[in-house]
Amino acid sequence: MAKEGLVKSVLYIVNVLYAIFGLFTAATGIWFFVQINEFVALRNTNHYLLDYRVYWPQLAPWFFILLGLFVMMVALCGWFGTSKESRGLLGVYAIFLMLIVLGQVITATLIFVYVDGEHTDRFIKDTVYDGYYNSQSNPDVFKAFGGIERKLRCCGANDARDYRSWRNDLPLSCCQDSYYRATCEFTDKEANERLGCSKVAAVYTKIISSCVAGASLIISLLEIAGVILAWKLYNSLREVEHYITERKEGETEC
């Protein structure tokens, strides 16, 4: 009984961690969705450049949101199964956890395989280029593109020289302390040292995707521990039920 109590206590803690992980995963998906939408919105402002194709960076946020919600539901199932000592709930909990682990491993593998792929680079570069060209004729897009330059500390699509063909100076978003300056010259050292937004965005996306995939694999180890503990408690409860049944049958015979 002492061993069973220890397993239950550990399972309680593990399920709290699962719930926190699920909440964090869903929040990460929402954040990633907002970041991706900034780029896609820039690209689709020009109706002649509308692209209705779907790329994996656009699907990844939805997967993380759904995964996070599913993990929280499974953690709740594990919590009630442990507290009520329900073998049925514990069995369902363990099966769902195994499915989550399998899904995370497959997804992490796909991210590592495709994060450096041609489709990822094409999606990011085409989006940044289209956003940059839209900014030349649309003040709202110009302002939004400037926000991306500030956030990523980049300048232009390729580099600061992109602006020479249609401006007499650089946008303030390309310069350090841009909110406190009236102009930004083409000779500005800070602006010329910055990389183009297409390069920075590509690196930025790959780093975030790889970190999330790596964290997902690490968490899967904790989930495997949860599966083992759930099955231990499941078997322990089965032995108890078997013992009680045998005892009742013996009493009846007497």
UniProtKB/TrEMBL annotation:
It is a multi-pass membrane protein. It is found in: Membrane. The chain crosses the membrane at residues 12-34, 59-80, 92-115, 207-231. Keywords: Membrane, Transmembrane, Transmembrane helix. Its main location: membrane. InterPro entries: Tetraspanin/Peripherin, Tetraspanin_animals, Tetraspanin_EC2_sf. The keyword Ubl conjugation does not apply. Belongs to the tetraspanin (TM4SF) family. This is Tetraspanin. It comes from Iphiclides podalirius. The lineage of its organism: Eukaryota, Metazoa, Ecdysozoa, Arthropoda, Hexapoda.
